[in-house]
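In the design runs reported in the main text, the only information available to the sequence generator was the tokenized backbone. The following block is the verbatim input for one such run; it is reproduced so that readers can re-run the procedure and compare outputs position by position.
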């Protein structure tokens, strides 16, 4: 995420969409391996361990990494040399043709450099500057952290207790697996949404996510919902809110925060989501046990 400031905002769209797709593919693969092929959860997890190895290969062998200033200048040098050779070898061409050659090469330089030519590198922030930046960044961090806190409390402490025993075509384990798949589909759709529209007021998202948490909490306690499809819709809505919060938070940082602070802002704000997930993991254990006892 810290590298996203260096490129166009469309990188945020690609990153958000890619992580959304990965969630859907993993949840779908787990459903297929366990519910369809009949493998145990342990066997399924061992099979998907190939994914980190593939990620390692893709990162180091296929991706284009951010060039240094020296590498950035190399294409210009090559193009300048090409310009000289073209001018020398085209002594019989007209002046207008030479100008066209220069224009073409200039356009090629722009294509090679892309957005990098217009980006300024972040200056090294002092500890005092970083501390001062924490307060203005809370308007991004707090909504994101609360959304993830409520979201993962639902996923880790509640939905596994929402069970419809009357369903003959889906047992308890299968219901939970499909809950997770529906959730990931919601995340994927909303993480891809900033290519179409953005959400201006981030504070709306944690309010809605907390409302979804309270609703599902009461369902786990009193089991008053008659249909699993209502739960599917609610969990999809929960995933949509999480994806909206993720994509729109980092998009707003990219367009609102001063460029020299964007790298630090991206890194610091990402801690909010991790902190929300961590706290939810700690809270969901006693929450789950309390619900089971009740």
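Verbatim output:
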């Amino acid at each position: 995420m810290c590298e996203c400031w260096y490129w166009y905002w469309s990188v945020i769209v690609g990153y958000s969409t890619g992580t959304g797709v990965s969630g859907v593919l993993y949840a779908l693969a787990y459903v297929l391996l366990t519910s369809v092929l009949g493998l145990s959860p342990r066997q399924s997890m061992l099979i998907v361990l190939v994914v980190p190895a593939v990620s390692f290969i893709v990162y180091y062998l296929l991706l284009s990494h951010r060039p240094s200033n020296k590498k950035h200048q190399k294409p210009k040098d090559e193009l300048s040399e090409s310009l000289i050779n073209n001018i020398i070898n085209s002594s019989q061409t007209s002046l207008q043709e030479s100008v066209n050659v220069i224009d073409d090469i200039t356009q090629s330089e722009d294509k090679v450099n892309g957005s990098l030519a217009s980006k300024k590198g972040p200056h090294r922030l002092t500890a005092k500057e970083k501390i001062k930046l924490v307060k203005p960044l809370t308007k991004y961090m707090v909504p994101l952290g609360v959304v993830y806190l409520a979201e993962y409390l639902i996923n880790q402490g509640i939905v596994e207790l929402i069970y419809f025993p009357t369903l003959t075509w889906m047992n308890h384990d299968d219901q939970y697996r499909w809950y997770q798949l529906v959730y990931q589909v919601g995340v994927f759709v909303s993480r891809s949404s900033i290519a179409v529209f953005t959400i201006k007021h981030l504070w709306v998202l944690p309010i809605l996510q907390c409302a979804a948490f309270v609703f599902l909490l009461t369902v786990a306690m009193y089991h008053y919902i008659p249909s699993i499809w209502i739960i599917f819709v609610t969990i999809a809505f929960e995933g949509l809110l999480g994806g909206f919060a993720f994509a729109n938070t980092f998009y707003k940082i990219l367009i609102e925060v001063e460029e020299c602070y964007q790298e630090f802002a991206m890194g610091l704000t990402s801690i909010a989501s991790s902190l929300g997930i961590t706290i939810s993991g700690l809270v969901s254990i006693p929450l789950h046990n309390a619900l089971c006892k009740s």
